[in-house]
Amino acid sequence: MEAVTDRVFRYMIETYAPADLYFTEFCCVDSWDTPGWSVSSKRLDRYPNETKLIAQIWGSNPDKYYQVSRYLAANNYQGVDINMGCPDKAVIKKGCCAALADNQPLAREIIQAVQEGAGNLPVSVKTRLGNKSDQSEIWVEFLAKQGIDMLTMHGRIAKDMSKYPADWEKIGRSSVIAKSVNPDIKFLGNGDLLDLDQAKHYIDLYQLDGVMIARGIFSNFFVFSGKKGTKSELLKVAKKHLELFIDSNQEYCLRRYSSFKKFFKMYIREFEGADQLRSRLMTTTTPEQALDLLSDQETLASP
């Protein structure tokens, strides 16, 4: 997720409630060999010991996809995921991401370029049921025929953004179609998942190979562990996340502190005084101010 799944947040998840796979923020390949690559490539930043990390990329230029995929293979990522599902209007206008459901020839070129550039790395696609309308049956059959290793389906069309519940019946039908075309493909579902019990139920019910949890983590940081955090635990991880955020890159951190504040909604919730503390944290202007507040609260919460 953009401005969410950076290396610091992935470290937090892996430390306190590990997942099976992680995806980077999505990186635009079209900036390759331009001054903009120094900014775009920050979304691929990782810690040296990350061993379950798939790089997520997007764009419109197959040649750039090829070059970036070669770069990812040379730098030991565990896979390459092509984002064909982002519903952002500015991205759609460029003919990228979910708009590729309306442009199969370009989608084919992109997949082939990534497969060639990635070499032995697994290549996956994350997408939606369609762009402006439900095209899932045709779209999924097309994607499965491209020989990709994994396909993740979000159960909405791009036009609907997140206005309506994800359609898991259509996700299930899409899985059947994909596996009828390519029996070796791994098929994952995505959309509105909030806990492990729900995830396991949907995997069994719709005969999936797995699921992807994204925004659901904002309802429970510990979702991958199957538990809920206590007040003491939530304050501890919030403080640790903020400390790592500050240490990771001072200049970069200060420039993005306003974006970091969304994590307070994840950690500071469902305990006595959470609403008031979260309001105070949201008014801070520097991460150091927030760290002082969290330190005070952690001291008060200690036995």
Provide structural commentary.
This protein is an alpha/beta fold. It has 2 domains: 20-212, TIM Barrel, CATH 3.20.20.70; 231-301, no CATH class. It has helices at 7-16, 37-40, 62-74, 89-93, 104-118, 136-145, 168-181, 196-205, 231-248, 250-255, 257-260, 264-267, 274-282, 287-301; strands spanning 22-28, 53-58, 79-84, 123-130, 150-157, 186-190, 210-212. A 7-stranded parallel beta sheet has the order 1-2-3-4-5-6-7. Helix 1 packs antiparallel against helix 9, helix 6 packs parallel to helix 7 and helix 9 runs antiparallel to helix 14 (287-301). The longest helix has 18 residues, at 231-248. It is globular and about 60 Å long. The model has no long low-confidence stretch (mean pLDDT 93).
Provide tags for this entry.
303 residues, alpha/beta, TIM Barrel, 7-stranded parallel beta sheet
Overall pLDDT level: 93
Number of strands: 7
CATH C-level class of the largest domain is Alpha Beta
Counting helices, strands and paired strands, the structural category is alpha/beta
The SSE string, one letter per element, is HEHEHEHHEHEHEHEHHHHHH
The figure for the number of domains is 2
CATH topology group of the largest domain: TIM Barrel
> Spans with pLDDT under 50 lasting ≥5 residues?
none
The biggest sheet, with number of strands, parallel, antiparallel or mixed sense and barrel status, is: 7 strands, parallel
Helical fraction equals 40-55%
